[in-house]
Amino acid sequence: MELARTKSVKGNDYSCGFLSPSRFFSGVAEDFLYSGTSALFLLVANLFPSYWYFSFIALFPFLWKVNRASAKEAFRLGFLLGLTFFTFWSLDSFSLAPVSTILKILGGTFLFALWGWAVGLIKQYFGFNPIIVSGLWVFFELVLIKLGYTSGILTHSTFSTPFILRLATLFGFGIISFIVVLLNSFLIKAIEYAAKVFKARTIEFSKSELTWAFVKDCHLFSQRFFVVPQLRGPPVSSIF
């Protein structure tokens, strides 16, 4: 029994309850793919104001992965997102003040990791709720502004449009961040709903129309190859 259990554990690449190094690094690489993509979109939206609309899909890869991750994995995703974003965001400051820049990157990365962990933790208890996720982002962005990290990660680029500028003037920057993250979150819900509907329709088709079509085709096949035409007698002359 113990030998079989040991083999099973080794077969799953576990050792003493921990992932093997290969599985760990492959997981980190996969997380970096999602977090790095979101960081790239955020950088494009902030560094190039004409591409402000990238903000509306910037957090989609990150949130898509967080929606399927545990709280611990969400912390790692947030850490990778913050590290990538703040490292490239602060490249110009390295030559002027390297020590303070490194400390700023580490602090911002830790805050991003806390936000990811909070999203993952709440998801475990309440599910993936777009309103809660958006509210957590507003609080997180407010902390970054108060600490002097940025003037607004999502709001920094969207203020270039007149409509959003008026909206921010009326309700403050928080409503803009809330709407942007809400749209990113609703995009995930929309894709999941579409996939669920498509899957249901595929199953329904396979059980009804596909089966009926198969029966019809088999019947046609039997008619062509297995049905022998009956012999017909010679025509009988008509009696007048």
Architecture overview:
The protein has 240 residues and is mainly α. It has one domain (20-223). Helices cover 75% and strands 2% of the residues. It contains eleven helices and two strands; from the N terminus they run αββαααααααααα. The protein has helices at 2-11, 21-47, 55-58, 60-66, 71-89, 98-126, 130-146, 155-158, 162-171, 173-207, 209-225; strands at 14-15, 18-19. The protein has a two-stranded antiparallel sheet with strand order 1-2. A hairpin with a 2-residue loop joins strand 1 (14-15) and strand 2 (18-19). The chain is globular. 27% of the residues are buried.
Strand and helix map with partners:
Layout: H1 2-11, E1 14-15, E2 18-19, H2 21-47, H3 55-58, H4 60-66, H5 71-89, H6 98-126, H7 130-146, H8 155-158, H9 162-171, H10 173-207, H11 209-225
Antiparallel strand pairs: 1-2
Helix pairs in contact: 2-4, 2-5, 5-6, 6-7, 7-10, 9-10, 10-11
Low-confidence stretches: 1-17, 217-222
Number of helices: 11
- Based on CA atoms alone, the radius of gyration comes out at 30 Å
- The tally of beta strands, per DSSP, is 2
Q: Main β-sheet: number of strands, strand sense, barrel status?
A: 2 strands, antiparallel
How large is the share of residues in beta strands? under 5%
Order of helices and strands: HEEHHHHHHHHHH
Number of domains: 1
How are the strands of the biggest sheet laid out side by side? 1-2
What fraction, in percent, of the residue positions are helical?
Answer: over 70%
